[in-house]
Amino acid sequence: MPDRSTISRRTALGLLAAPLIRPALRIQPQSIITKPIPSTGEALPVIGIGSWITFNVGNDREARNACTEVMRNFFELGGKMIDSSPMYGSAQEVIGYGLNRLGNPDALFSADKVWITSTARGASQIENSRELWGVPQFDLMQVHNLRSWEGHLETLHAMKASGSLRYVGITTSEGRRHSLFEEVMQTQPLDFIQVSYNILNRRVEERILPIAQERGIAVIINRPFQQGNLIRRMKRQRLPDWASEAGATNWAEFLLKFIVSHPAVTCAIPATSQVRHVKENMAAATGELPTEAMRQRMIDYVEAL
Amino acid sequence: MSEWWTYRLSDFLLFSADTYYRLFELYNTAIWPAHIVVLVLSGLWFYFLIRPKPWSGKLLFTFLGTTWLWIAWGYHVSHFTSVNWAASYYAIGFALEGLLLILAGGSGKARPIPSNTHWTSRVGTGLIGFGLILQPLIVLLSGRPWTQIELFALAPDPTVIATLGILLLVGRIRWLLLPIPIIWCLISSATLWTMGASEFWMTLCAAGVALFAVRPVHKKPYSVY
After folding, report:
1. In this complex, do B14 and A89 lie within 8 Å of one another by their Cβ atoms?
2. Terminus of chain A with fewer CB atoms < 10 Å: N or C?
3. How many residue pairs from chains A and B have C-beta atoms closer than 8 A?
């Protein structure tokens, strides 16, 4: 019978050292669909992960571990981009907890936001976010909902110039402030924009997405399931027999593939706290993407429901 | 906030229903076995309400004010802020109401007198009973496990509902003490409704009933034909 105290000590040491010695999660890039970030050509998987609501679980250890499992599966399935904001309660801290438990995967593409009225305090908020994530620096920092955008963009461009940030972006959601959003896109050097878009809310197709294509700006799509309302509604309906022709075997794939098949869209960031859902979502980054004709067929079908 | 009219309540919800309910479970676990003490004290509190003594007002309002102060710290600051940054503002509101209740009790102007003949008093007693007994039971009957129970003196909603009730039993000083409980009822109800929780109606109805019961009644002058 082994010495219990020895095992206990060894186990304890192993647990403490786990983040240091555990190899970075192996990525399986063989079948993941990626799109290039126009400003650099860097390939990004078309499905990322958002953290609004789903990762805001506070100090609940059990729920934090569940979020970590979501992240583990996300990385194992070839995911890269995780997106958050200081506005999302404890989500940044929960992401940092998960990344630490997973040994800080090399694959991570960290995307966060600056969300504060005072532009003078923008840099300190970004630094606080970085500490919560536990990353050396962010890949992408976005001005959340264009809040104090002029001052924050100055800060972000200075960070990018100094090498402490790789990409700069702006965000909005649910079609808000699109006029100003277009103006900023036209006048500022941006790597990314983040907007809401789904099969029933296609307003950004009119001007935002064409401008992004013209200006060479990567596009992240938030709220692809309309905060879950869209997918809940769709799951009550029958998936069309021809869904497999669109590369979809379930509604999550159907809705996500519609989004990421738009030529201007770089990736979508559905949020979830369930491993089953992240697997469904990541399946949308595999196989074939719908053609233009198929996209129209998908729209016609969903609008007729 | 520009284009404020485009925002919906769901745009301000930062957490899921599961997270919200788990918060009560973690809170209850953290303070156990305080529940036993609180249940005994709540029973005594109700006894001195229906069997009033000359000093009942001070006792009842001091205890009630203390529960508001505790909820400000023990629930809002120590737990709710972990998922909702607005909870720090809720804590300020609860602390302020707690102090006001204690001051009102100390002033001797808050002397609740239950009456079987005055209907406002009957409504007030009913709300107190609802906050003490029915609200926690309904929460459990809605399918949540008992570990997520919300008890008077420990959780915001039943405490606020019972507070509305006792304020119907006192005089004009209630106008100073009513606004914060009413505001909380609206916040709580909106939060639960946005989360899709079936029990959203409880605080909303409690606020509505309390406001209806205390509305100024203008007696019509006698008509002479």
Report:
1. yes
2. N
3. 54
- Residue B112's SS3 state is coil
Split at pLDDT 50, 70, 90, the class of A10 is: very low
Q: Which superfamily does A42-237+260-288 belong to?
A: NADP-dependent oxidoreductase domain (3.20.20.100)
Residue A271 backbone zone (phi > 0: left; psi -120 to 50: alpha; other: beta): beta
The first and second tokens of residue A305, run together, are 């429901």
Identify the pLDDT of residue A228.
83
Helix %, strand %, coil % of chain B (to 5): 70, 0, 30
Interface of B with A in 10-69 (CB under 8 A): 10-11, 13-16, 18-19, 22-23, 26
What SS3 string covers chain A?
CCCHHHHHHHHHHHHHHHHHHCCCCCCCHHHCCEEECCCCCCEEECECEECCCCCCCCCCHHHHHHHHHHHHHHHHCCCCEEECCCCCCCHHHHHHHHHHHCCCCCCCEEEEEECCCCHHHHHHHHHHHHHHHCCCCEEEEEEHHHCCHHHHHHHHHHHHHHCCEEEEEEECCCCCCHHHHHHHHHHCCCCEEEEECECCECHHHCCHHHHHHHHCCEEEEECCCCCCHHHHHHCCCCCCHHHHHHCCCCHHHHHHHHHHCCCCCCEECCECCCHHHHHHHHHCCCCCCCCHHHHHHHHHHHHHC
Rounded to the nearest 5°, which phi and psi values hold at B89? -75, -35
Q: What is the pLDDT of residue B4?
A: 63
Half-sphere exposure of A63 (CA within 13 A, CB side): 27
pLDDT at A123 over 80: yes
Please state the ipTM of this predicted complex: 0.83
Interface residue of A51, A59, A84 to substitute, partner B, most B CBs within 10 Å: A59
Cβ-contact A103, A73 below 8 angstroms: no
- Separation of alpha carbons A287 and A290, rounded Å: 10
Token code pair at residue B97: 């109401």
CB atoms within 10 A of CB B48: 17
Say yes or no for a CB contact (<8 Å) between A89 and B23.
no
Give Cβ neighbours of residue A275 (< 8 Å, ≥ 6 apart): A66, A69, A70, A73
pLDDT exceeds cutoff 80 at A129: yes
| pLDDT tens sequence across A54-93 | 999 999 999 999 999 999 999 999 999 999 999 999 999 9
Tokens, residue A157:
């461009």
C-alpha B129/C-alpha B136 separation (Å) is 11
